[in-house]
Amino acid sequence: MRKAFEIIDHTADVGIVAYGANLEELFSNAALALFSLIIEPESIEEKLHRDLKVSSEDRDSLLVNWLNELIYVFDAEHILFRRFDIKTLSENMLQATCYGESFDPMKHKIKIGVKAATYHMLTLEKNTGGYKARVIFDI
Amino acid sequence: MTRWQGQLIKVDDYRWKIPENYKAGMRVPGLIYASNEMLESICEEQTPEQVANVAFLPGIVGYSLAMPDIHWGYGFPIGGVAAMDIKDGVVSPGGVGYDINCGVRLLRTNLSEAEVRPKIGQLINELFHNIPSGLGSEGKIKIDQKEMARLMVEGARWAVKRGFGYQEDLDVTEEGGCLSGAEPDKVSDKAVKRGMPQAGTLGSGNHFLEIQVVKEIFDSYIASIMGITEIGQILVLVHTGSRGFGHQVCTDHLRVMEEAVSKYGIKLPDRQLACAPIESKEGRDYLAAMACAANYAWANRQCIAHWARESFSKVFGKTPEQLGMKQVYDVAHNIAKIEEHTVDGRKFKVCVHRKGATRAFPPEHKDVPQRYQKIGQPVLVPGDMGRCSFIAVGTDRAMAESFGSTCHGAGRVLSRGAAKRSVRGRDVVQELESKGITVRAESIPSLAEEASQAYKDVTEIIEVVHKAGISKKVAMAIPMGVIKG
């Protein structure tokens, strides 16, 4: 099986490269990559779920907005997710159910605080095996 | 990362020009302040290309500038300065950065190294206990939406009104700690929700509070006006910004700007440079929201400085007044401001973007506090936690050629990942201890990201801006105690 994502270095920040056989898988893997920057995803249990809806101008910014929505939910409501069920995905709209739990400082060890997904060096492309995207985060 | 192969023309030992014809679409040339040696590392990444890209932005006047601590950012380089004519220019959230009004505040004290050294462990623990820090840290200030709206409009004044510090702190804070034009209704509910619990927190990453010892004074007259008179004198430096609040404001408005770029037909070489005309609804809304975040950051540093004074007071059994804990200055280094500047003999009202750059206004400028009219605006340049920090002042030359701007700090050379691979957090603590620096951090592993090796040497940076004449160095201090998130 091919890997779901990779972590890449950027001088002041950090980034991810996510893969997916289709766009749904790509968006799901990108979200998983985001949470793997913040924490060991294995330490997150599926205790609650949250329905999220994100819209945008185009598909590239949909990816950025989707990741920013997850960062927001974590920073404002302290919810960590580990599984993402993408229900609908179009050029400019995404609906997903996200599974995870509330942040527990006794149990969860935060690695880095991710503050925003940026457009910097953003790529989202289709190749022979499926889709590949790169996102740089501000931390 | 591939090495930058573009064209640089040497102007003098500290100035390098990227000609306007380097790339079709540049409206002005680029100008990088750097020494010959520094240029090597600057060109290792595509940073000069980013300086050239910024020169594409509509309404840019003079030069697309880069300070010697420049490093690769998203869209705009960090260490970049760009001024846009308010009549036909644009404002770009990327030219400010995510951490709106990230900045530095310096307090002086009457204490000496000999008095503080025996109590440094106790003092650092007290500060660490008293000042909320770390990822997702929540403040001890509980504010509701109404109070948050006041904070966004009043900035540091809000904090002083509630007993955090003194009126005279405001006199020595850029903009008096309150940027005008803040409109809370231009800020999203999301930003407010992220911001409320984080007010009055240091945060994580490269943010810190340091207890420093003055090691060198280069200009004793100027230093004395700032209350810095002795080698061995203790100073307190706070570096933090607008936390998740500023990030959300930036994220929200970048989205709006994305649409504005196509609406106004602006051609950009990099999507992260998204912008809108200053006079458009999108541009005005961003500036109004950005002012809210800038004010939030000033309130934040005001509260943290207050708790630092409280901690010193408790450990030394004296009031902050008895300890002489007066504020020297507070500067923003991620901000956009409407200012008046002269370019080629013509006066312009411009929107100056400073992203990882500090305002450096000269003596007798109307925006310099009364106390500093003779010496110029204090400039605070923190280095990494293992080396030193500098205090400088603004100059006429900065006003004439860099829109009254100078460097902001050391600038990274290693990514956080590379720093972590080359050194362990525990080793960083030991190395600092061996230099007589006590450190307390929420996360020891993440200290590795902030190790000296990850940064340029701030001494080289300050030499360049000093010799180039865009600021004048006044004093140097080294850390004795550090708290980090």
What's the arrangement of secondary structure elements?
The complex is a heterodimer of chains A (139) and B (485).
Chain A (H helix, E strand, L loop, with lengths): L4 E6 L2 E8 L2 H16 L9 E8 L3 H19 L1 E11 L3 E10 L13 E2 L5 E5 L2 E9 L1
Antiparallel strand pairs in A: 1-2, 2-8, 3-5, 4-5, 6-8, 7-8
Chain B lengths: L8 E4 L2 E4 L11 E4 L2 H9 L2 H8 L5 E12 L6 E8 L4 E2 L11 E10 H4 L3 H11 L14 H10 L1 H6 L5 H5 L17 H7 L12 E10 L2 H6 L7 E8 L2 H21 L12 E2 L3 H36 L10 E6 L1 E10 L2 E10 L2 E2 L18 E4 L7 E6 L1 H6 L3 E2 L9 H7 L2 H10 L3 E4 L16 H11 L2 E14 L1
Parallel strand pairs in B: 3-4, 18-19
Antiparallel strand pairs in B: 1-2, 2-3, 4-5, 5-13, 6-10, 7-9, 7-11, 8-9, 8-19, 12-13, 14-17, 15-16, 16-19
Helix pairs in contact in B: 4-11, 5-11, 8-10, 10-11
Summarize the structure in short:
The complex is a heterodimer of chains A (139) and B (485). By secondary structure, chain A is an alpha+beta fold. Chain A contains two helices and eight strands; from the N terminus they run ββαβαβββββ.
Give a description of the structure.
The complex is a heterodimer of chains A (139) and B (485). Chain A is α+β, with helices and mostly antiparallel strands. Chain A has a single domain, classed as 3-Layer(bab) Sandwich (Archease, Possible Chaperone, Chain: A, domain 1). Chain A contains two helices and eight strands. Chain A has helices at residues 23-38, 59-77; strands at 5-10, 13-20, 48-55, 79-89, 93-102, 116-117, 123-127, 130-138. In chain A, strands 1, 2, 6, 7 and 8 form a five-stranded antiparallel beta sheet that branches. Chain A has a three-stranded antiparallel beta sheet with strand order 3-5-4, covered by helices on one side. In chain A, strand 7 (123-127) and strand 8 (130-138) form a beta hairpin. Chain A is globular and about 45 Å long. The model of chain A has no long low-confidence stretch (mean pLDDT 92). With 485 residues, chain B is of the alpha+beta class. Chain B has a single domain, classed as tRNA-splicing ligase RtcB (Alpha-Beta Complex), CATH 3.90.1860.10. Helices cover 32% and strands 25% of the residues of chain B. Chain B contains 15 helices and 19 strands. In chain B, strands 7, 8, 9, 11, 15, 16, 18 and 19 form an eight-stranded mixed beta sheet that branches. In chain B, helix 15 (458-468) links the parallel strand 18 (438-441) and strand 19. Chain B is globular and about 65 Å long. The two termini of chain B are 30 Å apart. Chain A binds chain B through residues 7, 9-14, 56-57, 61, 65, 68, 72, 75-76, 78, 103, 110-113, 115-122, 136, 138-139, and chain B through 45, 71-75, 78, 98-99, 135-136, 190, 193-194, 203-205, 244, 247-248, 250-251, 254-255, 258-259, 270-272, 274, 412-418, 443, 446.
